[in-house]
Design brief:
Number of domains of chain C: 1
Strand content of chain B: under 5%
Largest sheet of chain B: none
Order of helices and strands of chain C: HHEEHHHHHHHHHHHHHHHHHHH
Number of strands of chain C: 2
Number of helices of chain B: 5
Radius of gyration of chain B: 23 Å
Shape of chain C: globular
Chains: A mainly alpha, B mainly alpha, C mainly alpha
Oligomer: heterotrimer
Radius of gyration of chain C: 22 Å
Order of helices and strands of chain B: HHHHH
Largest sheet of chain C: 2 strands, antiparallel
Structural class of chain B: mainly alpha
Distance between the termini of chain C: 20 Å
Number of strands of chain B: 0
Chain lengths: 100, 120, 512
């Protein structure tokens, strides 16, 4: 039976993986996925906390985060597709007109 | 042994329901076979084609709208689960759900009127 | 959710009235946008633009009349409307009104007749107001996202322009990254205290061992998440790209309203959720020990360095910029640094100074971006320093206005910028941050160089290429002139606004 600590550590690891992935990958879509991974890591620890505290508000929070994440992805993908029409690539190193 | 009878009854009922549905659709439905209809999954998408295929951008738009509205409805579940407690507080809770659904509905109407989900 | 809060429409109206107005008018605008065809695209654009402006003006009127004096300031434990929030809401609405009026002219100049712009603006303003008012960490996250999503779309609004989209995508990626951090911090604090409401968090923390590593990590992550939005160094990387890429008026809005809201929430979260000293010993301790009480030992040194880096980095790199919008982006990073100084000082004067600074900064920044769009004509037609050469004689009015706004940003008397900087630096010195204040003044001298260089280009150089700009509409001119008058008026007679700002910051403790 995994305890609260294990869940929190797991979610911290997932969050870290997401953050590292975001910082190292160059594909914009994979970066989106890394952000999703980070948000879901947060969800995991939220559910764990809510379960061990026997508190419903944490679990409701998870649903809110789902909804927000969905809206975020919708907007992000729309921007990416609009940009793709100009650049024909999802490699973020190609988006280099704006610098310094 | 108690409880096992219910499972048998359940399985029998579902079998009957399936057979009944097949029978009714066989009796009532017109039978006009086409090659496209005879494929394994009859959902309008070709079964075998290259994976690196170009999709229409409209598909994406519908997909995104589906994603958003699908996940927004998730927020109604906790209200449903707690509705008894909420109802004791008077109409406030109901008003909240009403406003929430109204906002969603406004978004949906906007999407429809902007022809976001028209394919052509 | 716990059901201890009682719902009443009257409370909703008195506390969240501005939000309700913005949300309802946003929904009404949705249908106006669909069904109103208009005689011509221009007419349609200006009608919807003015409707948006009127909605914001109504909300502003509601805030100024009704929400300034409330007995009960918290609505269902989620939103608060004490004078501190009311002040910031008013600043945000002011920025929104100016931005939406300027947008009409901007969109016409660029021949964009898509009126979704104003819907996005209305909802972004709604999100920003709610963000300022939120006292619940969940609400802070959700409203932050509502605000940001609106702004991402606005930043990408020139969809045939690659720079606009590129900036927007960068903003989106980094903004979501930042809000993930904020969220993780929120969850950790929820895990530790079992509460998501700031007031309850503070009372739980007061009884708990608040130096627990989990609290400190949560504190750090929430700070990072908000710093991304305020664009403090080292979380500023998106700002120059986004500010340069976005439509000028949107840049003006997000440089002011979003920053004002994020700084307000920063003060609120730090002062409230993480201020256990307040709950232990009450009011006097709160004001004497100020922000964050005992946890201050952990975050103040960090904020010291961040403030210093933000001021230096923003000002130094701005010197090297050729594009005026990009230069103002770095300058807005530097301004965030000055405001951080006021947060760090965390005395009455510091908070008052930050509020005053935000007000003045909002006016002069939107004013400056307004002039930039006028001189620009079509986006990216003329926005480099070379393009500005010699414009002072060709377009004396606009050149005078932008010179005034830039002088105000440089912090020269007698402008509002000077007064704001004066209070912030004075507060920092009073709290004993003498070295930091001295370094800050040094950076602001560097700042004066690049602001005044634009003025020099306008008046002292000969033009290298012909710049022709379309006429400036009456409404735009009125807004710009009003902003200029306000900048000068606040520079000469700041007393009225400082009193209001002081009253506003004193009520911060009412929420708790």
């Amino acid at each position: 039976m995994a305890g609260l600590t294990e869940y929190v550590i797991l979610s911290a690891i997932l969050f870290g993986l997401g953050a590292i992935g975001f910082l190292t990958r160059r594909n914009a879509l994979i970066m989106f996925m890394c952000i999703e991974l980070m948000l879901n890591a947060v969800n995991l620890s939220l559910v764990a906390f809510a379960h061990f505290r026997v508190d419903l508000s944490g679990q409701v929070l998870v649903l809110f985060i789902f909804a927000v994440a969905a809206a975020e992805v919708a907007v992000g993908l729309a921007i990416l597709i609009a940009l793709f029409r100009h650049v024909k690539d999802v490699d973020i190193t190609e988006y280099n007109l704006l610098k310094w | 042994m108690s409880g096992f009878e219910t499972i048998v009854m359940y399985l029998g009922m579902s079998l009957l329901a399936i057979l009944g549905m097949l029978l009714i659709s066989h009796l009532l439905g017109p039978f006009r076979p086409k090659p496209r209809k005879a494929t394994t999954y009859e959902c309008g998408v070709p079964l075998l084609d290259p994976s690196a295929k170009r999709y229409s951008v409209k598909y994406f738009l519908v997909g995104v709208l589906f994603l958003v509205f699908d996940l927004e409805t998730v927020l109604i579940y906790p209200i449903a689960a707690k509705f008894k407690d909420l109802a004791q507080l008077g109409w406030g809770g109901f008003l909240e759900i009403f406003v929430f659904v109204a906002v969603l509905l406004a978004g949906l109407l906007y999407a429809i009127e902007k022809r976001a989900i028209d394919w052509d | 959710m716990d059901l201890q809060y009682s719902f009443s429409l009257a409370k909703l109206w008195s506390i969240c009235g501005a939000q309700v107005i913005m949300l309802l008018s946003g929904l009404v605008l949705l249908f106006v946008e669909i069904f109103y065809k208009g005689k011509s695209p221009e007419r349609r654009l200006s009608t919807i633009g003015w409707l948006t402006t009127i909605a914001m003006a109504l909300a502003l009127g509601h805030v100024c009349n009704k929400e300034w004096n409330l007995d009960e300031v918290v609505f269902m434990g989620a939103f608060s409307m004490e004078k501190f929030s009311a002040f910031l809401v008013a600043v945000v609405l002011m920025a929104g009104i100016m931005a939406s009026i300027l947008s009409i002219g901007y969109l016409k100049n660029n021949k964009i007749y898509r009126t979704e712009y104003f819907l996005l603006l209305a909802f972004a303003v709604y999100g920003t107001i709610a963000f300022v008012q939120a006292v619940d960490l969940l609400m802070i996250f959700i409203t932050l996202e509502i605000m940001s999503l609106g702004i991402y779309c606005l930043a990408a609004f020139l969809r045939d322009d690659r720079l606009s989209l590129e900036g927007s995508l960068k903003y989106f990626l980094i903004g979501s990254f930042g809000s993930a951090f904020l969220l993780f911090g929120i969850v950790l604090i929820y895990g530790f205290t079992g509460e998501i409401n700031l007031t309850k968090i503070s009372s739980v923390l007061a009884r708990a061992p608040f130096q627990h590593p989990m609290v400190l990590v949560a504190l750090a992550m929430i700070m990072v998440g908000l710093m991304f939005k305020i664009s403090m160094v080292p979380f500023h990387m998106w700002a120059p790209d986004v500010y340069e890429g976005s439509p000028s008026v949107v840049t003006g809005f997000m440089a002011t309203a979003v920053k004002a809201a994020a700084i307000g929430v920063f003060i609120k979260v730090m002062a409230v959720g993480f201020g256990p000293v307040l709950s232990l010993s009450g009011q006097p301790e709160f004001y004497a020990n100020a922000l964050l009480g005992a946890l201050g030992a952990y975050w103040k040194p960090i904020l010291w360095w961040i403030s210093l880096l933000t001021m230096f980095f923003g000002n130094l790199i701005a010197v090297n910029q050729r594009n005026v919008k990009r230069m103002l982006a770095y300058s807005s990073i530097a301004h965030a640094g000055y405001m951080t100084l006021g947060i760090l000082a965390s005395n009455d004067m510091g908070r008052m100074g930050v509020l005053f600074y935000l007000f003045a900064y909002t006016i002069m920044n939107i004013g400056a971006f307004g002039v930039i769009y006028c001189l620009d004509g079509q986006e990216r037609h003329a926005q480099t320093l070379e393009d500005y050469r010699g414009l002072g004689y060709k377009y004396p009015g606009l050149s005078f206005l932008i010179s005034l706004f830039l002088v105000a940003m440089a912090g020269l008397p007698p402008t509002a910028g000077f007064i704001g900087k004066f209070y912030v630096f004075a507060a920092a010195i009073r709290s004993g941050y003498l070295l930091l204040a001295a370094l800050g003044i040094l950076t602001s001298v560097i700042g004066a160089y690049y602001y005044l260089r634009v003025v020099y280009m306008l008046y002292m150089k000969d033009p290298v290429r012909e710049i022709s700009i379309p006429g400036v509409s009456v409404s735009t001119a009125v807004i710009l002139i009003a902003a200029a008058l306000a900048v000068i008026y606040l520079g000469i007679l700041p007393q009225g606004l400082t009193d209001v700002a002081d009253a506003a910051q004193k009520t911060l403790s009412l929420v708790f």
